[in-house]
Structures are given as C-alpha cells and as structure tokens.
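Checked the freezer inventory, then went back to the computational side. Two predictions to log before the end of the day. The first one is the construct we discussed on Monday; recording sequence and tokens without edits.
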Amino acid sequence: MVQAKKYIPLAVNGGIGFGAKLKPKQLAILGNYLDDETEIELTTLQQLIVQIPEEELEEAKRNFDEVGLYYYKVGKYVKSLRTCNFCKGEEAEGMPVAKELNRRIAGQEVPFTLRPAYTGCPIGCGEPLINDLGVMKDGDTYELYIGGLSKGREAKPGQLVKENLQPEELYHLVEQILDIYRDNGKKREKFYRFVDRFGIEQIKEQIGII
C-alpha cells in the first residue's frame, strides 16, 4: 500500500513592504513545490497559503530564503504584519519599524490566530483600527490600538492603548500585550473577545500605562 504524502501548510509572502508584491523568481520557486492541480490560497493578510510535501519542507525553506520569500506557520500564531499600499518613501513611512515589529512578533504562538496591521500615516490604508492589533504612524511617533474587528455584527474599531510612542516603547508594549493574551486568554479565544472580557483598563494597568 502506497502511503499518502503528508503536506505542511506555510503562509508565504515577499516580506514586509508597501503592499503585497512578489518577484518572478519567487513565483518560479513556489511553482517547484506545486502540482499542476494544486490550488494556492491568497488571504486578506497578504499571504499565500501553500502546501509543501513534508519531506521537501527544509529544502523549500532554504530555497525560499535564497529568493527573499518569507514563510510562517499556519494556525494559532501571530500572523505577519499587514501593511498599507501607498507611501512617501520607506523611511518617511516608518517601514523599518514595521519590519522590526514583524520580526519580533510574527510566528509567536497565541490562543487564537492574531492579525496585526501597520499603516505609515493617519489615512490608515493598512486598516490598523479594524485588526486585532494595529499600529499607526503619526508624524515621528506611533499609536497602538487593540481589539478591532472588521466584519460581522460585532464589527468595531480597536481601542487606543497609547499614542506618541517611540519605536522601542512600541515593541515593548506589543510584546507585553501578547504575553498577557497568552497567560490569560482561553483556548481558541479570539483576541477581540479577550480584550472585551479581560478589559482594556486592566491590560493598560498590567503594562504600566495607568
């Protein structure tokens, strides 16, 4: 009896930048691991979900690294940072901060899939206020929002945690909030529901804001 192949899902993108972009060489590498009838899911989080044969997983990761493809676990993890599509230049829009924040948090295990978003100005094209965790650059500082939801009858904007943040303070607060969620969230409890249940004021108190 021939044993069926085991596939491992990976969420893949071209890295953190302005919008979701892939280069031809990146698409060509992805094609090496896909059968003719394989379907690739494009998510609203600017990721492609691909199924990689388990025995080819490590080789695929090495090849992805060579062409600048980024890959993340699928499931109850912090997703890669969603970003806006328009810009005035990488430095002006704070993209180095977005990249560093993504490096620190993407792939962390949490009670339920968590969707972070970033935007480089108050226009908010990256939709930070309707994602689980949102960062908005305003001038030379950053604002942090949590608990947003984009769809359904419960749709609502996120709540402001703190404004006028410098990058290191932003990173620290986000990491603290993720720790609180891990320590106090119920199994498969969505982040916006956790914020509602646990309370924004209690979260602020535990991270030393009030």
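The second is the one RB wanted added to the comparison set:
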Amino acid sequence: MPQPPVAVPLPHRGVLAVTGTDTVSFLNSVTSNDTTAVTGETTIWSAFLTPQGKFQHEFFAAAPPPGHPDAGGLWLECEAERREHLRKRLAVYRLRSRVSLADRGEDLAVAALLGERALGLLDLPALEGFTRRLGNGVAFVDPRLGQLGARAILPRGELESTLDAAGFAVDHALETYDGQRLALGVPDGSRDLEVERATLMESGFDELRGIDWNKGCFMGQELTARMKYRGLAKKRLLPVRLDGPAPPPGTQVRRNGKVAGTLRSAVNGVGIALLRLDALDGPETRGLEAGDAALTAHKPPWANF
C-alpha cells in the first residue's frame, strides 16, 4: 500500500541566512559543494570542514523566494542547536567578503515531506535538489537521495497551515522521518557524524552529492581528495538492523569480540553505524553486536565502495 503523504516538522533543524554581494563566492570558497549551482530551482547539500578535513557542519543551501527580505542570498538549513557555532565559524573566514550572517531560527521552520505522493502534491519532478516556491518559503527534493522525499523551509507561523493546504497530514513524531533515513543509511548532522573526527569519504558525502570535485579549492579539500583518489577510507557509515534494545549513540559495535565500529543514532529497530570495512564480509554482514542488540549491516544501493 502506498505511504500516505506526511509532513514531519524537524525542530532539530534551523536556518541561517547569508546575504550580501559576495554570498555565493564566499561560501563556495569554504564549503564542499558548488554554491554557484544554487538557484530558485536548485538546492544543494554541502559541508563545512576543519582545515584538516574533518567534519564540523552539514547543511542544505537554498535560495529564498523572490520578495523575501533574504532574496538574493542563501538559506543554510542546518542543525538548530549548532547554528550559532556555524555562524561564528563562517564569520572567522569572512575577512573582506561583503556578507552578513543572520540567525533565522525564530522566523523559519523546517519539515520533511514523505510518501510516494509527496513530490506530486508539490509539483516537483523526481530530480534530486529540484526546488520550487511553496507559500512564503521553498520546497525541494532532498538533494542527497530522492527516496527521502522533499523538505520545506517556511515561516514558522505558517508551516502547518501551508503544508495542510498542500495536502499533507502533519506528523510530529521525528521517528517517522528518522526511520526512513536510517534505513537508507543517510546521516543527519552530529547525531551521526562525530564533530572534528568524521570525514566526508567515510560518511557518504561523495555518493550523496555533497561534494563538487570540479569547483576548485575548499577548506579541508586536501584530505578529502586524498582519501578519495588513494582509497584511504577504512570505515564507512552504514545502515544497520537491530534485534534487541538500541544502546545509546557511541556504543561500540563488536564482531567476534573485536571492535568493529561505533553505533550512531537508532530508532525502531534501524540505525546507522560507522563500521570498519575489514569487519564486513559482503553486502550484508551479520554477527555484529552493540550492547544487548544483535546488528546486521547493509550496504545501501547508492553506496560505491
């Protein structure tokens, strides 16, 4: 039976506005994806790294709709609790760039739009990153993986009414969204990516369209490129199925008594774990344990390793 279209508000996500004449060139110089590709019809997923190439932040970069005060700049849809840290880190590298960084967390809210009919209700083609105006905000196909449906950035006070008018039932259970993305092996910020330790090549950013290799240098590019072209990634973030109670994030995953990796987030019998490649024996690997749960790891269809 087709999944009915639902809208899941994501209170753990927030929005930064980057405005000014140098917005695109500034962000393009310090983040992993090509911000020159962002238009009213295209949204991207990108990352901000340490100079050593370790993860700090991930975000979606979308163009605010015409007529909005931020029009001409970009909205960065990022982790709500860490958006001030992102703002401060970006400000460090602003130098003479003519950009302003403003927190829009009080004004804008984010929702995931799920279900086989979700894209049709929004008049969106099945094309990752495709974007259109929705009310006084925007909706876009998830640029990482179309199977994750769409997302919306809307004025906070209009979120539910706009989505209801578009034909979505509002579901406030974050588990509804998490269950779908975890089954697909898609990370969500620092819940799954350890800050200042995770790397993009271990975390699926290449296959999930979070890196542009042709745009020129970005901060942390040297390590990222070296890991790609020399095949240096020894671990991968993979979806796991749990049989038993989910232990807390950070619990060691073991196989035959040896450490095989670390469990990150998990909900309703599915999770995501950073696993050593030498502990895996094929597209499906059984015999893993974390706490009191038995784990089975899967290589998702989109992964290329």
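For RB: The mean pLDDT is 96. The longest helix spans residues 174-184. Let me know if you want it refolded.
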